[in-house]
Amino acid sequence: MSEQAAVVEEKIAVPEEATRPAPQRPKHKPLPPYAVIVENDEDHTYPYVIEMLQKVFGYAAQRAYLLTRKIDKTGEALVWSGSKEVAELKRDQVRGYGPDFYASKKVEYPIGVRIEPMPG
Fold it and tell me: Which pTM does this prediction carry?
């Protein structure tokens, strides 16, 4: 051999996995927001519903009053929307709010409330 170094080209074995493109993960669709809807009934009073909306959702008196009027006039109102987990918590808090002591006859059952996915 001459004084010049002989260049030897070596092939490096590459594992087959490394040459494959990485699998694409499925794109997760964001979960839709959920609505908390309070339903009207003939037994729960305005003061009770207003107070409940203020305590459970942190609404000011005027907003709680306007939502209560909408519940009374239309039969129901969307009172909050957000993640499913928080909507479930809010629904459970409304259900567990307690009896309506403002009513002439004590109302011990919870006001109607449900959650449902928002459209779109």
Answer: 0.75
